[in-house]
Design a protein that fits this description.
Elements (H helix, E strand, L loop, with lengths): L9 H19 L8 E2 L1 H8 L3 H13 L3 E4 L3 E4 L4 H23 L4 H9 L6 H19 L2 H18 L4 H4 L2 H14 L2 H22 L1
Antiparallel strand pairs: 1-3, 2-3
Helix pairs in contact: 1-3, 2-3, 4-6, 4-7, 4-9, 4-10, 6-7, 9-10
Length: about 210
């Protein structure tokens, strides 16, 4: 095989994956803020690797929209737009409202217990995963695989935006989650849909207020 056709070494692939995953996690959690310049050289020093894995990780993050290539600056952490927020939350209201209504008829004591475990303050590193698990569980319980897949993709795309909601860090969102659980356990599908939509709309308003 010619040198031009050689694939990356296992070590390079592992380093690229490590750099990519850690940067993505920090961007989503707003540890690395929008507008931050990401230098290949600085990343290579930080992660103890060559510039190649850093370059590949940045290319992947650009493809996913987390980073943009800006003239005279290089790789810069992208800033979510108001349009991103409005469109994302609009779809969440439609899809997750439907999932909540469907899930109402399929609730069991076991599924309620799983949802309640997600409604706890947790540590800073647990807040995001618990929130995602709560919403993901409701989509799972709904029993519609296509709806579940769409919601899963949307939650992943919007995870960074959801972290901008200040209620995530003051735990005010937990009261909204408890209201959703109460509606789900009541057997009233319309009420469950309404509580989910109310929660998502409230989060949208709070996020826009932070932008």
């Amino acid at each position: 095989m010619s040198r031009g056709m050689e694939s990356a070494s296992p070590g390079t692939c592992a380093a690229h994956e490590r750099v990519y995953r850690e940067l993505k996690r920090e961007i989503i959690a707003n540890i690395i803020r929008a507008g931050t310049i990401l230098s290949e050289t600085d990343l290579a020093k930080r992660f103890g690797c060559s510039r190649t894995p850093a370059r590949e990780a940045l290319a992947r993050l650009r493809h996913e929209g987390y980073v943009t290539l800006t003239p005279h600056k290089g790789n810069v952490v992208a800033t979510p737009s108001i349009r991103d927020v409005l469109e994302g939350y609009y779809l969440r209201s439609l899809l997750e409202g439907a999932a909540a209504e469907l899930a109402t008829a399929r609730m069991t004591p076991e599924s309620l217990a799983l949802l309640k475990r997600c409604v706890s303050p947790g540590t800073d590193s647990e807040i995001g995963p618990l929130n995602s698990r709560f919403h993901g569980l409701i989509a799972d319980i709904a029993g519609n695989q296509k709806l579940q897949s769409l919601i899963g993709d949307l939650l992943e795309q919007m995870e960074r935006i959801v972290y901008l909601d200040p209620a995530m860090w003051t735990f005010d969102h937990l009261d909204e989650h408890l209201a959703i659980i109460e509606a789900l356990s009541s057997g009233d599908g319309a009420r469950a849909r309404a509580e989910m939509v109310r929660h998502i709309e409230a989060s949208k308003t709070r996020v826009i207020g932070q932008m």
